[in-house]
Design brief:
264 residues; 4-stranded antiparallel sheet; 10 helices
Length: 264
Amino acid sequence: MGERKIGDVILDVRNISLRFGGVKALTDISFDVREHEVRAIIGPNGAGKSSMLNCINGVYTPQEGSITFRGQTFDHMNSRQVAEMGVARTFQNLALFKGMSVLDNIMSGRNLRMKTNLFQQAFRNPWRSAAEKEEVEHREAVERIIDFLEIQAWRKTPVGRLPYGLQKRVDLGRALAMEPSVLLLDEPMAGMNVEEKQDMSRFVLDVNDEFGTTIVLIEHDMGVVMDISDRVVVLDYGKKIGDGTPDEVRANPDVISAYLGTSH
């Protein structure tokens, strides 16, 4: 393991409330995320986990509350702005280009980092050498991610032909290609068998350890979360019912009843 020192608060979510018509998705949620930690948001299905992530990365605009990221406070975030600030995200329902290769899918995550735009590339000449140099650099970065995620054998394979667990790994690679300082993982283990979950848990810890990436993870597999998280916030029916270390959360009576009260 490399040196991983958990730092100061990088993301501070304060009193977030989100409604859709008369339905309250989130009610007065507050928690913070520290630099370099693995911070989990857990809860039974329908607890509001994905809605919370959607507020952080600008997909939803909460009616109340604020989000402070690296000292700047926003009453809502804009998706493009969030990406430019160094926040990347994976999706529960894979947002991959199924007909494209593993390599090209991961390359698509580099788009934000490409300085030479497509208009310039279309009229090549004056920018030619800069564009080509940049292309080589981006390809090298993508190859490093492919090695890191141990998917070399499938680099030219269309993603749609891969088993689900490997598709999830490619989705993680696409997010890593943005070189984020904060990575939002939306149920990265959903639909996986035990072995695939173990692999994905290892990669999440390796990303955190080797790249120093801050990770915010939503998951409803409590066992996985307790194994890999530094701190855990627990939602149930859109309200926060627990927050602390895995041991503190595991012993919290409200959390126990929320989990035992569901069929899952």
